[in-house]
Amino acid sequence: MAVRVPALRRAAQTLVRGRPRLPARVTAGRRRLLAFIGVLGPGLIAANAGNDAGGIATYSSVGAKYGFDLLWMMVLITFSLAMVQMLAARMGVVTGKGLADLIRENYGVRWSAFATLAVVVANTGICLSDFVGVGAAAGLAGVPTQVSVPLAAIVVWSIIVRGSYRAAERIFVAMTIPFFAYPIAAVLAHPKWGEVGKAIVAPHIHTSSAYLLLFIATAGTTVTPYMQLYLQSAVVERGVREEDLPKEQREAVAGAIFADLVAAFIIIATGATLYRHGIHDIGSAAEAAKALVPFAGSYAEVLFGLGLAGASLLAVAILPIATSYAISESLGFEKGIGRGREAPVFVGIITAIIAICAGVAMVPGIPVIGLLVGVQVVNGVLLPINLFFIWRLSRNRELMGERRNRGALDLLAAATVVVTSSLSIALVIITILGL
Predict the structure, then answer these.
(1) Per-residue pLDDT tens digits for 269-288
(2) pTM
(3) Topology of domain 42-433, CATH
C-alpha cells in the first residue's frame, strides 16, 4: 500500500524531535503544575512534621472524647500556625539566617544557649516517640519493631547525609502523601457532614476541665518550636531570593492549612466512629487505628496505619535536622544537608540523635507516655520564647528593612504570640500539677 509523502515527513520529524509536542493548553497546565510543585518545600514539610505520632494521638482523643465539638478551634489554630510559619519564612528569606543565628546575634549567647538546650531536650524526646510510632505503624502490618525501626533509621540517615538538600526536600514533600489517607478514612467513617459544618461555624463549648485540657493540648501539638526552627533554616539553605518572598510566604501558609485540614479529618474520622459508639479514651495513634475497625472496616485501620507511618517517618527526619540547625547556628558551626565534609558537626549531631532515638525505641516497655509529659513541659516553656523572638525580630527595622512587620500585620502577629503563648504556659501548669 502506498504511503503519502506528508505522512512520511511527519514520522521523520517525530523520530528526529522525539515525542510529539503537546498542545499549548496541556503544556501550560503542566507548567503551572510543575511550578506549583517546585514551590512546595519548607512550609509544607514543617507544618506536616507537626502531625506526628503524638499529634495524631491528640487529634484522635479530641474526636473520641467530644466528637465534632472541637472542630471550630482548628480554624483559630490554623490562623496562628499560618501566621507564625509565614513570619519564620519571611525572616529566613530577608536575613539569610536561621532563627537560632538571629537570636544569638541580637540577644546574646545566653538566650541562644538556653533556647538550644531546650530544643535538644524536647526534640530528642519527640524524635524517640516518633520512632516508637514507626514501630507501632509497622506492627499493625505484623512487622516487628526490631526490623522496622532500624530500617527507618538507616533510610532517614541516608536521605539526610548522603543526598543533596534538593533531593532530600523532594523526598520530604513526597512523605506528605500518606497524609491523604486521613481524609479517605474520614469519608469511610460516614460522618454527617451537616453536623461537621455546624461544628466548625457554631462553637459548642463545654465547661469541663477535660475539654479545656484537650483544647490546650491540641494547640500545643499543632504549633511546636522545632517547626519554626526547621522552616527558617531550610528557607535559607534553599537559597530563596527576596523577589520570590511572596511565593515562599504563600507556601508556608498553604502548608499550615493543609496540615490542619489533615488534623480536622482525623477528628472527623474518630468523632464519627469512636465517639458515636461510646469509645472515648484513646491512648495512642495505633490504638485509634485498631479501634476504627468495627465501625469503619479494616480499610480504615490500614489508612490510619499508613498515615501514622508517613507522619512518623517525616518527623524522625525533620526533628534531627531542626536540632542540628539550632546547635550549629548557636555555636557558629557550618551546616547543610548533604554537606558531610564541610559540616561534620552538623552531620554528627544528626547521626547521634537518630542512633540514640532508634536504639531506645526498640527497648521493650519504654515509658513513652511519661517521656512525652516531660517533653510537653519543655516545649511549653520554649514556645513562648521562640514566638517572642520571632515577633521581635520580624519587626526589627535594621534586620528586615521594608519587609518588617508593621501596622495591622504587627498587631495580628502580637495577638497570635500572646494567645498561643498563654495556651502553652497553661499547658505547662496543667501538666506540672498532674491535671
Answers:
(1) 999 988 988 887 777 777 77
(2) 0.83
(3) Amino acid/polyamine transporter I (1.20.1740)
